[in-house]
Amino acid sequence: MPTRIRVGAVEYLNTKPLIERLTDFHPQIDLRLELPSVLADQLASDDLDVGLIPVIEFFRANRYRMVPNIAIGSRGPVLSVTLFSRQPWERIRKVAMDVGSRTSAALTQVLLRKRYGITPEIVPFPMHADPESLDTDAVLLIGDRAMRACLPGYAYAYDLGQEWTDWTGLPFVFAVWAVRDGVDLEGVDLALAEAKAYGLSQVGAIAQREAPGLGLDAGFCRRYLTNILHFDLGPREQAGLHHFYTLARDLELAPQGVTFESYHPTHLVESR
Ligand SMILES: C=C(O[C@@H]1C=C(C(=O)O)C=C[C@H]1O)C(=O)O
């Protein structure tokens, strides 16, 4: 019996185009959907073989390989990563961070500390808590609940994709497919590329199917998947990724000397 390859993907709308019919493209895939932070922990504890994990956790592990040219990124506003704040940036002293997030939580710290020169207190924000009942100045929300949130008690809603690109001029990469060290994907990397190509040809249908369950407008979901998110990991995205790494490393949110290795199937390497 062929081994199952355990694939963990983010449970949010942002990921749907990357996993559309994924299991049809490879018979050995065992697909699970989770929060990004949970996927990072599962990959770290060998409960997954490949996971769509927050990039900051790719840096922190420094032993994974990246599946080429697939990412969740933005080139300006992202619409689903928002720092809701009662204060303007300069006056934020305490922030609650979405426990589903690792990259955006680090990005919030990078912006606060590097761009605005303040080091606020950080507390976790649980999945089912009410943001309006918090005593913090700001709360970071990501994913589907960030897109639905209005939070009239917060005067400011900072889009962190927009903040990053306004500041650096670069795209931002939130998540990549990371392959655990020593794992041979047995062609699952090709299936991931096929699912992405297929999913991107189906964004209209995906938006229409997913919108009602999310309580969102289908046209809005389509524009989010088509014009807001970017799923390639090209040279500009890689420049954004490296720049984020250097800033996170300076703040000791990531270790020194991280290598950005791509995944190459073992049999191809061996047959050279
Ligand atoms: C754009 C997003 O990208 C994500 C944000 C992540 C993070 O903050 O750790 C991780 C994976 C992605 O789901 C989002 O969730 O809205």
Automatic annotation (TrEMBL):
Alphabetical UniProt keywords: Lyase, Menaquinone biosynthesis
Entry EC no(s): 4.2.1.151
Signal peptide residues on this chain, from the entry's feature table: none
GO molecular function: hydro-lyase activity
Gene3D superfamilies the record matches: Periplasmic binding protein-like II
UniProt key word Cell division: no
EC class (word): lyase
Annotated pathway: Quinol/quinone metabolism; menaquinone biosynthesis
Keyword Lyase: yes
Organism domain of life: Bacteria
Catalyzed chemical reaction(s): chorismate = 3-[(1-carboxyvinyl)-oxy]benzoate + H2O
BP GO terms, sorted: menaquinone biosynthetic process
Functional note: Catalyzes the dehydration of chorismate into 3-[(1-carboxyvinyl)oxy]benzoate, a step in the biosynthesis of menaquinone (MK, vitamin K2).
Alphabetized HAMAP family for the sequence: MqnA
Similarity section: Belongs to the MqnA/MqnD family. MqnA subfamily.
Name used for this protein in its record: Chorismate dehydratase
Organism of provenance: Tuwongella immobilis
